[in-house]
């Protein structure tokens, strides 16, 4: 089915999220929508899916104008959407999930699960999905869950499939498999809109590329275009994609993790017998697919999560921090950039200046006894806003009003301005615009060069390869291996899938 | 299709929108609407108006006249009874209503600050009554059972009231921190327990019951040395309690806006998870916050226990613990807001007898009071009535709403 968006404009108050966007996706085409976070990709797709009403513009399917008042209309017209966060019920089987909302029934009105199973099998076989209709969704790996989402759309006769950042949760292998599936679907006539900000994937799979910046289409490109060219189209200026860094000069051990085990919120072992150390002046990256225990590992180091009794010890600069409070650990010289800055890194109602003193309210320079040292605080805030290039009208702007990249710079500014020996940095560039990524990477390398120990936790292999001196790969709560930073991508990919190499 | 938009150097439209979406405008509109609702009830319960309705089409002006007369009389009496009595023979008489307003506002302000402090930390302290009564118990014990020198006596009694209240609040915080018990439930239950315990104490003359109380639940009158001294001499009832409340406003302002403790309290209120990550002891903060919240309520308790010339009875708490919730909501939990809201509700209390003399039920003022807070708590309603733009920022109230009513979608 041919999809055409004509002059779509969507405003939220004064913000123009989509500014007369034109997009044509031919039948059987994989069309990549490339843009930074906040460029307006998701808004556009929500307009297409009937979740938002466009202020102006038209949607045409096979040259006929359509008008959706909700996702139901869009689905009925043949549009399927796979969201970044899956809309599956974990305790249901694959067939039950696929049937949900469109339950096939027999003559008596009783649920006909066999029909649903047959449908899943049919689609699965046709595209080589290899999905068991009777498996419980919660038991399936993330990559397979994603295929269930795709089956859900196909079961509803989707002719246009929108994939919103589908590779964020996948291992490199799973990503390759997804790309295979996308090609197969396209060959059978399904049109695919592939939303992403990862240039490598776009180049690998897309037939056509549309780049969006600040709500406008800034250009079309062919997959043969240079990566650097695509990146500068996305950002609107030249960007350096590689980080210059000299050889590491590791010093004494700063963080020593010995046989660490941690339980997650459901009392399952999220981290299992993990040991490693990080030296001054090096970046140790923990690579791995989302959800393999990295979050719990970082929280355990910071004292935010209780250690399992099996645990050997965690020590920082030679002293054990086992059972110590978060404050004690922070004050021992640990800087922490949490993975979810909205939830854990910032208070969006607080101003930038207040956020910059969030973990410094106990001591000088932010506190003078019982009162806040306002003059010092505001002066330091102005300085840091400048130093870290936070784009805001003033240091009194609430953090919630900043873009993702600028929010992250506030968190970094706070953590890097403290006297620390160890930096625990989790997903530092998630949801951050490409321009800020460059800046954040450079700052992290600077910290390492100045002799700090950096523990980088990232699910983005590109980021790991750009920054790490050594790479520890985590899979299902364990460290599969600690390897040199020059290890090739394919081998790391295998390790991320649990293969010991 | 989209040309270049000419930009005005100042975006007046946006500026206006921001002003209107702010809390102050909405609060003022809520107060006006609340009075309108009160006027409605005055009108429909007015005899002349109801009679005039019968021949409304013959003489519509008669109905309007009756309506405006009763509203004018009602709110006129409210002003006369709470601000300035122009009919009084002496200066003393004409300013007495104002001093009564201040006297009655004092405990509302103090307790309102307490409840507001809880709100700022994301805690819904409904236990004002229980905390206040606990303060009454302690203060009454000091005021009626201990003999102390002048000045020292009432100072000790005030401290006792604050300690008595604080302990209850801190206990609620302890339960929340240790066991995760929801403060809404525990404070309500403690209200029952403490109020009943107070009755129990007041029925036994070995405990707090007065020597002349007979079978009644009443304490001895406080020793003269324990009573709060008057601020304007013996002819006015206004006493030190109001001054204490004003001091409390200043302390509250400093604590919440200027101190590092307040910074941490607010941080926990907005985002407990980020506060925890920043090394703030969230559980400890709950104990501290509920303790401090109750401490302000304790000032109201001191005021109630040490102002009366008679003894303390089970009704001495005067519903202040609950009224404080409305004061805190109306005042947006800010120091100045609570001060103004407390004065307004104090005026309602002071003016209620004057309004009754006009033949209007003083319950109308209760309706006004409730309606105001109802409008405050339902910003979308106010916005719909006055066609205001949607809010630009999330308010404390919306955080509270989502806390109370689950994850309401946007």
TrEMBL record, chain A:
Cell location: Cell membrane
Ranges where the ABC transporter domain occurs: 3-239, 255-501
Major subcellular site: membrane
InterPro entries per record: AAA+_ATPase, ABC_carbohydrate_import_ATPase, ABC_transporter-like_ATP-bd, ABC_transporter-like_CS, P-loop_NTPase
UniProt KW keywords: ATP-binding, Cell membrane, Membrane, Nucleotide-binding, Repeat, Translocase, Transport
Classification via Gene3D superfamilies: P-loop containing nucleotide triphosphate hydrolases
Membrane-protein topology: Peripheral membrane protein
One Gene Ontology cellular component annotation held by this UniProt entry: plasma membrane
UniProt keyword Cell membrane present: yes
A molecular-function term among this protein's GO annotations: ATP hydrolysis activity
Pfam families: ABC_tran
PANTHER family per record: CARBOHYDRATE TRANSPORT ATP-BINDING PROTEIN MG119-RELATED, GUANOSINE IMPORT ATP-BINDING PROTEIN NUPO
Protein's name according to its UniProt entry: Unannotated protein
From TrEMBL, chain B:
Cellular component terms per the entry's GO annotation: plasma membrane
Transmembrane segments: 20-44, 151-172, 184-203, 236-255, 286-305, 325-348, 360-382
Signal peptide, first to last residue: none
Subcellular location: Cell membrane
Membrane topology: Multi-pass membrane protein
Keyword terms: Cell membrane, Membrane, Transmembrane, Transmembrane helix
Any Pfam family: BPD_transp_2
InterPro entries documented for this protein: ABC_transp_permease
UniProt keyword annotation of Membrane present: yes
GO molecular function: transmembrane transporter activity
Protein name as it appears in the record: Unannotated protein
Species name: freshwater metagenome
């Amino acid at each position: 089915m041919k999809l055409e968006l004509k002059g779509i404009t969507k405003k939220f108050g004064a913000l123009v999220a989509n500014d007369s966007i034109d997009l044509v996706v031919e039948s059987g085409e994989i069309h990549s929508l490339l843009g930074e976070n906040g460029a307006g990709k998701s808004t556009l797709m929500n307009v297409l899916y009937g979740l938002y009403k466009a202020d102006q513009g038209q949607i045409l399917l096979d040259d006929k104008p359509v008008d959706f008042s909700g996702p139901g209309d869009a689905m009925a017209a043949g549009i399927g959407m796979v969201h970044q966060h899956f809309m599956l019920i974990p305790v249901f089987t694959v067939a039950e999930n696929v049937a949900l909302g469109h339950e096939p029934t027999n003559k008596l009105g009783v649920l006909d699960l066999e029909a649903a199973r047959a449908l899943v099998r049919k689609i699965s076989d046709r595209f080589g999905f290899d999905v068991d209709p009777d498996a419980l969704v919660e038991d399936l790996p993330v990559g397979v869950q994603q295929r269930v989402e795709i089956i859900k759309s196909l079961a509803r006769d989707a002719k246009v499939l929108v994939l919103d950042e589908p590779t964020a949760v996948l291992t490199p292998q799973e990503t390759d498999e997804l790309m295979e599936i996308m090609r197969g679907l396209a060959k059978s006539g399904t049109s695919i809109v592939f939303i992403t900000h990862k240039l490598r994937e776009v180049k690998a799979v897309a037939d056509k590329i549309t780049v969006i910046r600040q709500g406008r289409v800034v250009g079309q490109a062919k997959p043969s275009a240079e990566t650097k060219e695509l990146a500068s189209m996305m950002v609107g200026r030249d960007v350096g994609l590689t980080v210059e860094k000299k050889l590491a000069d590791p010093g004494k051990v700063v963080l020593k993790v010995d046989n660490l085990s941690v339980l997650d919120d459901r009392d399952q072992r999220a981290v299992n017998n993990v040991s490693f150390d990080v030296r001054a002046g090096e970046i140790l990256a923990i690579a791995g697919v989302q959800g393999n225990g990295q979050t719990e590992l970082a929280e355990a180091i910071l004292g935010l999560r209780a250690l399992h009794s099996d645990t050997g010890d965690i020590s920082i600069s030679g002293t054990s921090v086992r059972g110590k409070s978060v404050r004690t650990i922070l004050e021992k010289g640990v800087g922490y950039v949490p993975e979810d800055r909205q939830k854990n890194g910032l208070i969006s109602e607080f101003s930038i200046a207040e956020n910059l003193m969030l973990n410094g309210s106990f001591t000088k320079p932010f506190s003078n006894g019982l009162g806040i040292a306002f003059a010092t605080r505001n002066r330091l805030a102005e300085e840091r806003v400048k130093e870290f290039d936070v784009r805001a009208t003033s240091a009194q702007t609430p953090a919630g009003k900043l873009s993702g990249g600028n929010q992250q710079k506030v968190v970094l500014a706070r953590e890097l301005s403290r006297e620390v020996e160890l930096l625990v940095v989790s997903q530092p560039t998630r949801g951050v615009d490409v321009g800020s990524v460059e800046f954040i990477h450079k700052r992290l390398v600077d910290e390492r060069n100045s002799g700090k120990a950096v523990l980088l936790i990232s699910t983005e292999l590109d980021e790991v390869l750009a920054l790490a001196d050594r790479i520890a790969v985590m899979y299902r709560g364990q460290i599969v291996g600690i390897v040199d930073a020059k290890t090739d991508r394919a081998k790391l990919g295998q390790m991320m899938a649990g293969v010991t190499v | 299709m989209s040309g270049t938009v000419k930009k005005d150097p100042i975006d007046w439209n946006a500026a206006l929108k921001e002003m209107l979406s702010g809390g102050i405008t909405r609060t003022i509109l809520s107060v006006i609407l609340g009075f309108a609702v009160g006027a409605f009830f005055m009108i429909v319960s007015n005899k002349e108006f109801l009679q005039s309705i019968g021949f409304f089409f013959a003489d519509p002006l008669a109905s309007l006249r009756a309506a405006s007369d009763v509203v004018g009389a009602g709110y006129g009496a409210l002003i006369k009874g709470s601000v300035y009595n122009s009919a009084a023979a002496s200066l003393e008489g004409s300013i007495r209503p104002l001093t009564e307003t201040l006297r009655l506002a004092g405990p509302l302000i103090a307790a309102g600050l307490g409840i507001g402090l809880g709100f700022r930390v994301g805690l819904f302290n409904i236990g004002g009554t229980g905390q206040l009564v606990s303060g009454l118990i302690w203060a009454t014990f000091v005021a009626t059972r201990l003999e102390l020198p002048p000045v020292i006596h009432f100072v000790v009694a005030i401290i006792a009231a604050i300690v008595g209240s604080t302990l209850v609040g801190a206990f609620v915080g302890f339960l929340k921190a240790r066991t995760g018990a929801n403060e809404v439930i525990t404070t309500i239950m403690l209200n029952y327990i403490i109020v009943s315990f107070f009755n129990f104490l007041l029925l036994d003359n070995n405990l707090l019951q007065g020597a002349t109380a007979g079978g009644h639940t009443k304490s001895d009158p406080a020793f003269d040395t324990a009573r709060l001294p008057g601020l304007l001499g013996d002819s006015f009832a206004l006493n030190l309690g109001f001054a204490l409340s004003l001091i409390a406003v200043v302390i509250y302002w400093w604590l919440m806006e200027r101190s590092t403790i307040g910074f941490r309290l607010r941080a926990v209120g907005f985002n407990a998870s980020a506060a925890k990550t920043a090394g703030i002891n969230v559980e400890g903060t709950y104990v501290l916050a509920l303790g401090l919240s109750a401490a302000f309520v304790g000032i109201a308790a001191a005021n109630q226990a040490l102002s009366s010339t008679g003894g303390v009875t089970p009704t001495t708490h005067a519903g202040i613990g609950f009224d404080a919730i409305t004061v805190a909501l109306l005042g947006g939990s800010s120091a100045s807001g609570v001060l103004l809201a407390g004065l307004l509700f104090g005026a309602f209390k002071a003016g209620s007898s004057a309004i009754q003399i006009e033949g209007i039920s003083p319950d109308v003022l209760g309706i006004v009071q409730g309606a105001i807070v109802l409008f405050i708590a339902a910003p979308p309603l106010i916005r719909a009535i006055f066609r205001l733009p949607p809010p630009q920022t999330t308010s404390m109230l919306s955080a509270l709403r989502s806390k109370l009513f689950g994850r309401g979608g946007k």
